# Entry
Amino acid sequence: MERSEKALLLRKKGYNCAQAVICSFADVLDLPEEALFASCEGFGVGMGDMSSVCGAVVGAVMAAGIKNSSRNLERPDSAASTLKLSRTITKSFTEQNHSMICKELKGIETGVALRECTDCIQDAVKIAERVLLSAEEAERQ
# Structure
């Protein structure tokens, strides 16, 4: 099953957009899926009221942080490279969808939806997958 298909199944199961995205990466994040699920619980519906960042983007950026972090509390030296991955994710998502703000994507003020939640989830997963896997590949070489 493709990762984006898994994310959509999780969404249908009741996960919010952030949870669906990050939990679809559970196999590569080295954290229990329950921890990923819990960490994203407050990031659905554009962080609670649709006026903030799309939860799918939040899940993708969180996945980048977890995947890329050195997890070294004494010398947190991975922040710059993680921010670069995050910028790539947010820029790609925004270029593809013309926004990463939930209420704009849903067309709350304009009446014209730019993207449905399921499409945002698929887009965020595919972008994160491309960014994280290419970073992982580069690291191995």
Summary: Residues 54 and 93 are 10 Å apart (CA to CA). The chain has nine helices and no strands. The chain has a mean pLDDT of 93. The two ends are 27 Å apart (CA to CA).
